[in-house]
Every structure is written in C-alpha cells, then in structure tokens.
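Lab notebook: predicted structure, single chain.

Context: the supervisor wants predicted structures on file for every construct in the current expression panel, including those that have not yet been purified. This is the next one on the list. No modifications to the sequence; it matches the entry in the shared construct table.
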Amino acid sequence: MTSAIVALLAGLVFGLGLILSGMGNPAKVLNFLDFFGTWDPSLGLVMAGAIAVGLVAFGWARRHDRALLGEPMQLPASRAIDARLLMGSALFGIGWGLAGFCPAPAWLNLTTFMPEAWIFVAAMLAGMGLQHLWAQRRP
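Prediction complete. Output recorded below exactly as produced.
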C-alpha cells in the first residue's frame, strides 16, 4: 500500500511539474522545436533539470539492489543501442515534433478535451498495440 501512495504522489508531482513548466502546452513545445521561427529555449532548462535528476537517481539505483521502499530495483538489463531503440526514438521524436505532445502531457491534456490530445492518445495506443503484435510475431 505504501508503494502505491508513493507512486501516486510521484505522479502528482510529475503532473504538476508538466503543468508549471509548460510541457503540457503543445504550442510551447512546438515553439521549443522551431529553431528557425519562434524558438522558445525555456524548455531546455526543464530538460536539463530532468537530466540532472535522472543522472543522480540512476547513479544511486545502479549501486543498490533495493529501492528506498524495499522493493527490488528493476533497471533495464540491456544497454545496447540497437535499431529498435533508434527507430523507437525517431518515432517518438517525429510524433512529438508533429503534435507537440509526448505521452505524459497528452494524457494530461485529455482533461482539457482538446481534440488533438484525444487523437494523439488514440494514435499512440494504436501504435503501442501494433508494436506489441509485431513483437509477438518476431522469432
């Protein structure tokens, strides 16, 4: 039960961070990606902060076999940069650049009833389903 409460609180803090940083606003995200137009570099600071927190957290996690709440640490086993990782990263970036959404802000924007958010989430779920079917067919 404790881990569920911590997960809920972490999700709320993450969502609040998305809102306060502007990551939930697709126009702001698209302006961040528009280097030759109305470029807004402010989200770069948000990303730098996230990377800094991630470096500290993953550094700590690599040195421990249990999380702070006692659960087993579950880090990815593979560190390979392969075609699947590169293709997934490219698809993520293309989707982000076209729509101004990445998954968490898209879910957040469902509450605003923006049609673009609903279309993005539907397409994202369809893509996840197709990838799952494709992965099951691979030997």
